[in-house]
Amino acid sequence: MFKWLHPLAKPEILYHFCGRLLPWLMGSAVLTLLFGNIWGLAFSPPDYQQFDTVRIIYIHVPSALLSMATYTIMAIAAFTALVWQIKVVQWAVLAIAPIGAVFTAIALLTGMAWGKPMWGTWWEWDARLTSELILLFLYLGVIALAGAFSDRQTGTKVACLLALVGFVNVPIIHFSVEWWNTLHQGASITKFDKPSVHPSMLWPLLISLLGFYLLMLALFCVRLRTAILQNEQHRPWVKSALGGQ
Amino acid sequence: MTEFFSAQGLSCIRQDRVLFEQLDLTLNSGELLQIQGKNGAGKSSLLRLLAGLSTPDDGTIYFQGQLIAECLEQYAASLCYIGHQSGIHEQLTAMENIAFWRAAYQLPYVDSMTLLGELGLAGLEDLPCHMLSAGQQRRVSLARLWLTNCPLWILDEPFTALDQSAIQRLQYRFRQHLAQGGAMIVTTHQPLSDGFSCLKTLELSYRW
Amino acid sequence: MTEFFSAQGLSCIRQDRVLFEQLDLTLNSGELLQIQGKNGAGKSSLLRLLAGLSTPDDGTIYFQGQLIAECLEQYAASLCYIGHQSGIHEQLTAMENIAFWRAAYQLPYVDSMTLLGELGLAGLEDLPCHMLSAGQQRRVSLARLWLTNCPLWILDEPFTALDQSAIQRLQYRFRQHLAQGGAMIVTTHQPLSDGFSCLKTLELSYRW
Amino acid sequence: MYFDSFSDFLAMGGYGFFIWLAYGLTYLLLIGLVAYCFWEVKAFRQHIQQKLARAQRIKQYQEADQP
Amino acid sequence: MVSVFIRRELALLARQKADWLNPLLFFIIVLTLFPLGVGPEPNQLRIMAPGIVWIAALLSVLLASERLFRDDYRNGVIEQLVANRQALMPFVLAKIVTNWLSTGLPLVVISPVVAMLLGVEPAAFVAMMLTLLIGTPLLSILSVLGAAITMAADKGGILLALLILPLYIPLLIFASAAIEAAGMGLPYNGQLAILVAMLLLAFALVPLAIASALRINVS
Amino acid sequence: MVSVFIRRELALLARQKADWLNPLLFFIIVLTLFPLGVGPEPNQLRIMAPGIVWIAALLSVLLASERLFRDDYRNGVIEQLVANRQALMPFVLAKIVTNWLSTGLPLVVISPVVAMLLGVEPAAFVAMMLTLLIGTPLLSILSVLGAAITMAADKGGILLALLILPLYIPLLIFASAAIEAAGMGLPYNGQLAILVAMLLLAFALVPLAIASALRINVS
Ligand code: HEM
Ligand SMILES: Nc1ncnc2c1ncn2[C@@H]1O[C@H](COP(=O)(O)OP(=O)(O)OP(=O)(O)O)[C@@H](O)[C@H]1O
Ligand SMILES: Nc1ncnc2c1ncn2[C@@H]1O[C@H](COP(=O)(O)OP(=O)(O)OP(=O)(O)O)[C@@H](O)[C@H]1O
Ligand SMILES: [Mg+2]
Ligand SMILES: [Mg+2]
């Protein structure tokens, strides 16, 4: 079933494949993100309870969802890398980690900026907030761990292992609002059968989400290419790839 | 006939430096392969590859005709690897260290007292190893070779710190092992004494 | 004429075991004293006594006719001791390790790059030492011998882990040092090559 | 356009500070991330250049050392 | 084989008493420093006590774990065990068990005394003991994992703390939730059940991760 | 020579970031664990804060010092320095200075932030900073002494804690007395003067003790 993926496990082919994908991804990412955000900021109506602060939703929710989605992708990659020992997938784990870390940081910061007007406090040691903070630590841990080894390969593999182990935190984040009674509100858009958000807000939200997603993929391509070059720098094709551009 | 042990097209890259490339080697039972080369040529790195401790950047290793990646358990069970480091814990006594390794390799019971006596450690069996001299520590670590019945030995500079009589004794044990149909891969900067009929050598050159 | 270095009636007791007793030795400038003996005979213990690292249970050591206990500073300043352990920090690069020892011995500035290049470490100068091979680490630690101008060297198994060419180079340095009127005490299990005209040997027997 | 005027838009019904803080930080971080990713590519090229130069140096040194 | 390995670790512990006395002493010291540093008002101490006990336990297990594999790694023991393969898992299990015996158990044993000195109320006291009893094995498992992951890293300690604390924090949250519930006379079975579930899950999966971490670290 | 040695230690610190980041991180973690474990009531936190900061500082310096001579001892560096004699004292001084630079200084730098988060009042805050500024060098000197004494002992950590804590406690008492006085608006020059006197005395005498401890330990 996954036969078509096999050639992509070859670093050289993957490098060029990502190179071809990159401009499209980057362009559409910027366009959708700006479109969604401007719609949300200027054209969508305010909430009857939260007034205009609800406009933070168009960055908070996409970044929060993406922080978890990115971690999930990373964990899946890590699992694949460890079980089947595919090198490019190992590099992919490290390539995606900083992107996820930044998204997590954005989720935290925007959440804080939203929490001050809504809950009257920047920070609360509540379950979702704490577990999201832990997610940031996990990302940082993966990055730091990879850098801590003198041997790059060892560092990469160990970081994969940690990424995998840390995955337990993702369900905790998601279900924290159900398991503990917290300040943070429960799932509304991720209840797919019956979204409880009005379409006038749902659409810009979904478009922003798509924008964040595309941006993640685009940056992932960039970083994966760099990682491939770094790890393959002794191979002859790298020289031609570098010289060719 | 399939070879006992062979490797094809091995290459190893350390810190973006190619240590060796396209290296082939074969080893039959009863043979001793000595790997030679200057300091830093990559001998230890090669042995670690062969012992399955690290994976080669390229190439394949076969044990009894099978890829070692596919018979890891079986390969590990027939391998005795002793590296640069002694593998003995400094705070444990010689006896305790040997008991540990016996358990790890699931070897039959042997009277470690007599064994240590034979190795010239009589009376020092229950001192923590950090109180032994450099050569005595090395002897404790090599004691395992008298216990094991693994067919393949991979030894990284076994002679360091040993005195001449201990080296002779060790080589005697080598001959025994080879005579019993074992095979071994060794690096050493000191020449082996004559009398190894099935000695092969492999020279690694130091590449920058 | 007073001897350059001498010891009388030395004895050493380790764990209630007498390693040696009533040991005398003398050493003049230009001489090399090789201490031989089996593993655990007490060679390293003797060298540590002579280097002033531990005090003998009995006996006296003279340096240029003075008791070393009475001229500790001066003695220490004319001594270069390298023991079993390499004395290099694994996290520091070869360059940094050498800079450290140069400062500690207050040696004149030398271009460590060239020195390391001569020792076969070109291109590895700024890797942390734990990334070097066993023999390369040993070379870094011995690099000090090319810098120092202390008249007395005490070296404990300097040849471990070195390859033949490095051993030759080291012995060449030994001859230089002896020719300049230095003296040295060495233990080694590997035979020294011929060509040391002033070679003395001292055999320690292994006593239980 | 939901807002009546531009200043309304900036004020965001009194919550301007928080909303613009959130958006500002978000875009700051995102732009930083993008810049970092592309800077890495450039840094890698420089690294390769340095490596080549270094290999050259060592080769010269070894050639000078041989005879 | 596990029992031989456990006996080896115990022999080591008997010889290097620091390895288990140190965390214990650290625990006690941290706890005694509080009345000195914060001021000895009984009421305040009583409220803080269970939390402080848990924090101290967490820190001392964390600190003890740093050296767990250090010696064996330096001496090449781990390398040879990895080459040997079949002995690796028993070794890991032995390490986990002895780590708990040497750091978790002493803490559990000493904490009644400590709680008494700090004047913890009976209800909260029972909850504290129960959470410690369930929580410390989990702490041990996680810190062995951390030690294994960072074994060959150049910068051991800090990483260990950075990596393992995120995994510890859920534990701390549930434990202190249980203690708080107990202090208010509410049932806390739920929290305990979650702790037990976490423990079982960890015990089933983490040893595998530890073994592969060791394998990766020597390669 | 001292400066070369200090540079060496700094190079090591730059390479083994754990050696200074670890104590710092430890300090921060200990402090953030409190709201989690004890509960985030602001009033209680504010009262406890200076005491907790000092305890955390003390513990992190203590922990950092354990490894101070470990590597150099294992690699035979200390042995050769003792054989060389003249370089020993500069080495000791370099160790003290860099120990403070790497553990004391970061704590002093970070503590304002921490104090803010915990809501310490301005008066107590100034006193806390002053006592930390005078106290941490003293902590460093004492912990280098402890590390030197226990260098070759098989049971490093515990001994260190046992030996050094009694020496630390006077420091803790005077420091918290000063902070308390400041909190109540009283003058606290007296306590500061005592701290300074202790520091000077230690700086004059302890290095000699350290050098001889090293010498004894290698023989
Ligand atoms: C620092 C503070 C905050 C953090 C770390 C945070 C974190 C998160 C995370 C991780 C999610 C995704 C959860 C999931 O999909 O399972 C999320 C979703 C969400 N957050 Fe926050 N949040 C914070 C503050 C706030 C505030 C103050 C509000 C509004 C009052 C808010 C409203 C929402 C909404 C509406 C969702 C979407 C829920 C859904 O549909 O699934 N958040 N937040
Ligand atoms: N952990 C490591 N990380 C990075 N590079 C390493 C590492 N270990 C060794 N190397 C590099 O690999 C090269 C080969 O090392 P190796 O230990 O295999 O040499 P060797 O042939 O065993 O030498 P020796 O005779 O000195 O033991 C060395 O030049 C060294 O620079
Ligand atoms: N730290 C120590 N504590 C107690 N006894 C020791 C210690 N170090 C060595 N010994 C004992 O002293 C004896 C001599 O040790 P020493 O290291 O001097 O031997 P050596 O001649 O250098 O041997 P080798 O050739 O193996 O290096 C040994 O038998 C050992 O048991
Ligand atoms: Mg080697
Ligand atoms: Mg010796």
Automatic annotation (TrEMBL), chain A:
<dbReference type="InterPro" id="IPR045062">
    <property type="entry name" value="Cyt_c_biogenesis_CcsA/CcmC"/>
</dbReference>
<feature type="transmembrane region" description="Helical">
    <location>
        <begin position="133"/>
        <end position="149"/>
    </location>
</feature>
<feature type="transmembrane region" description="Helical">
    <location>
        <begin position="63"/>
        <end position="84"/>
    </location>
</feature>
<dbReference type="Pfam" id="PF01578">
    <property type="entry name" value="Cytochrom_C_asm"/>
</dbReference>
<feature type="transmembrane region" description="Helical">
    <location>
        <begin position="21"/>
        <end position="43"/>
    </location>
</feature>
<keyword id="KW-1003">Cell membrane</keyword>
<protein>
    <recommendedName>
        <fullName>Heme exporter protein C</fullName>
    </recommendedName>
</protein>
<feature type="transmembrane region" description="Helical">
    <location>
        <begin position="201"/>
        <end position="222"/>
    </location>
</feature>
<keyword id="KW-0201">Cytochrome c-type biogenesis</keyword>
<feature type="domain" description="Cytochrome c assembly protein">
    <location>
        <begin position="6"/>
        <end position="184"/>
    </location>
</feature>
<dbReference type="InterPro" id="IPR002541">
    <property type="entry name" value="Cyt_c_assembly"/>
</dbReference>
<keyword id="KW-1133">Transmembrane helix</keyword>
UniProtKB/TrEMBL annotation, chains B, C:
<keyword id="KW-0813">Transport</keyword>
<keyword id="KW-0201">Cytochrome c-type biogenesis</keyword>
<dbReference type="InterPro" id="IPR017871">
    <property type="entry name" value="ABC_transporter-like_CS"/>
</dbReference>
<feature type="domain" description="ABC transporter">
    <location>
        <begin position="5"/>
        <end position="204"/>
    </location>
</feature>
<keyword id="KW-0547">Nucleotide-binding</keyword>
<keyword id="KW-1278">Translocase</keyword>
<dbReference type="InterPro" id="IPR005895">
    <property type="entry name" value="ABC_transptr_haem_export_CcmA"/>
</dbReference>
<dbReference type="Pfam" id="PF00005">
    <property type="entry name" value="ABC_tran"/>
</dbReference>
<keyword id="KW-0472">Membrane</keyword>
<dbReference type="InterPro" id="IPR027417">
    <property type="entry name" value="P-loop_NTPase"/>
</dbReference>
<protein>
    <submittedName>
        <fullName>Cytochrome c biogenesis heme-transporting ATPase CcmA</fullName>
    </submittedName>
</protein>
<keyword id="KW-0067">ATP-binding</keyword>
UniProtKB/TrEMBL annotation, chain D:
<dbReference type="InterPro" id="IPR052075">
    <property type="entry name" value="Heme_exporter_D"/>
</dbReference>
<keyword id="KW-1133">Transmembrane helix</keyword>
<feature type="transmembrane region" description="Helical">
    <location>
        <begin position="15"/>
        <end position="39"/>
    </location>
</feature>
<keyword id="KW-0201">Cytochrome c-type biogenesis</keyword>
<comment type="similarity">
    <text>Belongs to the CcmD/CycX/HelD family.</text>
</comment>
<dbReference type="Pfam" id="PF04995">
    <property type="entry name" value="CcmD"/>
</dbReference>
<keyword id="KW-0472">Membrane</keyword>
<comment type="function">
    <text>Required for the export of heme to the periplasm for the biogenesis of c-type cytochromes.</text>
</comment>
<keyword id="KW-0813">Transport</keyword>
<protein>
    <recommendedName>
        <fullName>Heme exporter protein D</fullName>
    </recommendedName>
</protein>
<keyword id="KW-0812">Transmembrane</keyword>
<keyword id="KW-0997">Cell inner membrane</keyword>
Automatic annotation (TrEMBL), chains E, F:
<feature type="transmembrane region" description="Helical">
    <location>
        <begin position="157"/>
        <end position="179"/>
    </location>
</feature>
<keyword id="KW-1003">Cell membrane</keyword>
<keyword id="KW-0472">Membrane</keyword>
<protein>
    <recommendedName>
        <fullName>Heme exporter protein B</fullName>
    </recommendedName>
</protein>
<dbReference type="InterPro" id="IPR026031">
    <property type="entry name" value="Cyt_c_CcmB_bac"/>
</dbReference>
<feature type="transmembrane region" description="Helical">
    <location>
        <begin position="20"/>
        <end position="39"/>
    </location>
</feature>
<keyword id="KW-0813">Transport</keyword>
<keyword id="KW-1133">Transmembrane helix</keyword>
<comment type="similarity">
    <text>Belongs to the CcmB/CycW/HelB family.</text>
</comment>
<keyword id="KW-0997">Cell inner membrane</keyword>
<feature type="transmembrane region" description="Helical">
    <location>
        <begin position="124"/>
        <end position="145"/>
    </location>
</feature>
<feature type="transmembrane region" description="Helical">
    <location>
        <begin position="191"/>
        <end position="214"/>
    </location>
</feature>
